[in-house]
Design goal:
Layout: H1 2-38, H2 42-55, H3 60-72, H4 76-89, H5 98-111, H6 115-128, H7 133-145, H8 149-162, H9 167-179, H10 183-196, H11 201-213, H12 217-227, H13 234-247, H14 251-263, H15 271-286, H16 290-303, H17 310-317, H18 324-331, H19 334-348, E1 351-359, E2 362-369, E3 383-388, H20 396-408, E4 413-418, H21 424-431, E5 435-438, H22 440-449
Parallel strand pairs: 3-4, 4-5
Antiparallel strand pairs: 1-2, 2-3
Helix pairs in contact: 1-2, 1-3, 2-3, 3-4, 4-5, 5-6, 6-7, 7-8, 8-9, 9-10, 9-11, 11-12, 12-13, 13-14, 13-15, 14-15, 15-16, 16-17, 20-21
Length: 455
C-alpha cells in the first residue's frame, strides 16, 4: 500500500517536472526563434520552427513563427500557407497579436490575387481598430475593384472622416465620385487632397484620370507627369499619358509613352504591362502598321490568352499573311487606300466617282451610275459609299448616323463596305432600307477581281 502510494506520488512528480520543463523550455525556444529572425538567421529559424511543429502540428505560435521566418526570407507564398493555418484556429495572444497578423495576411492575400479573402481581413481590422483610416481605405479599394461603387464611396468617406488629413482617401473618393457623375463633389475632394499634400503623387494620378475623362488632355498630361515621381505609379502614369495622346490622335507620342511603360516593366505578366502592349498595338493598328500590332498581340497571347479580345484580334487578322488583297486594303497609306476605293467603286460596283474624302474609319465617296449614254436624259441618282477599315463590327447606330448624313446631302441610296462585318441588329436595320452592306467575304471577292494600281 505504502509502495503504491510512493509510485503514484513519483509519477505525479515526474509529470509535474515534465510540465514545468516544457513550460520553461518551449517559450525559451520560441523566443530563440524570434531572435534568429531578428538577427537575419532565417534558415535556422525555419528549421527550429519546423521541429516544434513536428512535435505539435497544432501549435499556432510555432506556425506563426514559421510564417514570419518564411516572410523574412522572401518566401511569401510559404508564409501565406502557414498564416492560413494560424487563421483557421483564430487563437490570438500576446505572442500572436491579432491586428498585426491580419494586416500581414491581408497583404499576402492581395499579393497572391485573393481579394475576397483580403477584404474579409480588412473588415475584421475595422472592428479591431475602428480609428485606423487605413483599414477603411483598403476596404474601399477592394469594393471598388468589385465594381461596388456604393460601398467603396461609403468606406472612402469613412476613411476621410476618420483621418481628415488622409490625402489619398480624398483623392480616391474624388475619382469615384467623378465616375458616378457627382462632378462638384469630385472636384472638391481632389482639391482637398492636393491642398493637404501638394506632393501627393496619388492625388495627381487621380486628378489626371479625372481630367482625362473630361477630355482635358493637356492638364491631364501635366498631372500624370507629376505622378511619375512615384515608383509604384510610374508605369501606370506612363500608360495613362499614352492613352491621353492616343485619344487626342497624337499616335507617335502615344507609341513613345507605351513603349517606355513596357521597357520599365519588371513583370511581363502584370496587367499593367499587358495593357501597355495592348494600347501600343491599338496605336499600330490605327497607323495601319498591322504587322507590328500583331507582334504585340502575340506577345500578350503568350502570357495571357484570355486577356481582353486578344484571341479575337489575332483571329481577325490571321488572313493578312495569306490574303494580300485584304492586307493591302487594311495597311495602305491614305493615297493608296483612296486608289483602292476608287477601283472597287468603278470596277467592282460599276459606278463613277464624283467625290472622295477621308473619314476617321476609312473614306467616303459620292458616286453615280456609269451608263451615261443609255440614260442621257435621266437624272443620275448619287450614292453615298463608305469604306470602313476599322476592326470593330459595324453596329446599327453607325447605319442610323449614315442615313442622317444621306438626308443632309439629299442622297437616297447608301453602300457600306467593311473588312470586318456587321452585327445582327445592323443587318436587320438595313433590310427595310435603301442600304447595301458589303462585308469581308464579298469585299475579298471584289478585290480579287479588280486591277487596282493600273486604273
Amino acid at each position: 500500500m505504502f509502495i503504491g502510494f510512493i509510485l503514484i506520488l513519483g509519477t505525479g512528480v515526474a509529470v509535474l517536472l515534465i510540465f514545468l520543463v516544457k513550460s520553461f523550455l518551449v517559450p525559451q525556444k520560441k523566443a530563440g526563434i524570434e531572435k534568429l529572425i531578428a538577427n537575419g538567421k532565417f534558415s535556422q529559424a525555419i528549421k527550429q520552427a519546423k521541429m516544434m511543429i513536428t512535435r505539435d502540428s497544432r501549435d499556432p505560435e510555432a506556425r506563426y513563427l514559421l510564417g514570419k521566418a518564411y516572410l523574412a526570407d522572401g518566401k511569401s507564398e510559404l508564409a501565406l500557407m502557414e498564416f492560413k493555418a494560424v487563421n483557421a484556429t483564430a487563437i490570438f495572444s500576446k505572442s500572436i497579436p491579432e491586428a498585426a497578423f491580419r494586416k500581414t495576411i491581408a497583404q499576402l492575400f492581395l499579393k497572391y490575387n485573393q481579394p475576397e479573402e483580403a477584404l474579409k481581413e480588412y473588415l475584421l481590422l475595422i472592428k479591431l481598430e475602428p480609428f485606423q483610416a487605413e483599414h477603411y481605405y483598403n476596404a474601399a479599394q477592394l469594393f471598388e475593384q468589385r465594381d461596388n461603387s456604393e460601398q467603396a464611396i461609403s468606406y472612402y468617406k469613412k476613411a476621410a472622416e476618420t483621418d481628415p488629413k488622409n490625402a489619398s482617401a480624398h483623392a480616391a473618393l474624388g475619382l469615384l465620385l467623378f465616375r458616378n457623375k457627382q462632378m462638384t463633389d469630385a472636384k472638391q475632394e481632389i482639391n482637398i487632397a492636393l491642398r493637404l499634400d501638394p506632393k501627393n503623387t496619388k492625388a495627381y494620378f487621380f486628378q489626371g484620370k479625372l481630367l482625362k475623362e473630361s477630355h482635358d488632355y493637356a492638364n491631364a498630361l501635366s498631372a500624370f507627369e507629376k505622378a511619375l515621381r512615384d515608383p509604384e505609379l510610374k508605369q501606370k502614369a506612363m500608360i495613362e499619358r499614352g492613352c491621353c495622346y492616343m485619344e487626342a490622335n497624337s499616335l507617335e507620342k502615344a507609341v513613345l509613352e507605351f513603349d517606355r511603360a513596357i521597357k520599365i516593366s519588371t513583370d511581363e505578366t502584370s496587367n499593367d504591362t499587358l495593357h501597355a502592349r495592348y494600347f501600343l498595338a491599338a496605336c499600330y493598328e490605327k497607323k495601319r502598321d498591322i504587322d507590328l500590332a500583331i507582334e504585340q498581340w502575340e506577345k500578350i497571347f503568350a502570357k495571357k490568352r484570355s486577356f481582353r479580345d486578344i484571341g479575337e484580334k489575332l483571329s481577325q487578322y490571321q488572313e493578312l499573311r495569306s490574303n494580300d488583297h485584304i492586307k493591302e486594303y487594311l495597311t495602305a497609306t491614305k493615297d493608296d487606300f483612296f486608289t483602292i476605293c476608287r477601283a472597287v467603286t468603278t470596277q467592282g460596283l460599276e459606278l463613277s466617282v464624283r467625290d472622295i474624302y477621308e473619314t476617321k474609319f476609312g473614306c467616303g465617296l459620292v458616286a453615280v451610275e456609269n451608263d451615261a449614254e443609255k440614260w442621257r436624259n435621266v437624272r443620275k441618282m448619287p450614292r453615298l459609299i463608305l469604306f470602313y477599315r476599322d476592326p470593330n463590327m459595324i453596329e446599327d447606330s453607325f447605319l442610323r448616323s449614315l442615313q442622317e448624313d444621306m438626308k443632309k446631302q439629299s442622297i437616297i441610296r447608301g453602300v457600306v463596305v467593311t473588312s470586318s462585318g456587321f452585327t445582327r441588329t445592323a443587318l436587320e436595320f438595313a433590310e427595310s432600307r435603301p442600304l447595301e452592306l458589303i462585308g469581308r467575304e464579298k469585299l475579298e471577292q471584289i478585290l480579287a477581281s479588280i486591277k487596282v494600281f493600273d486604273t
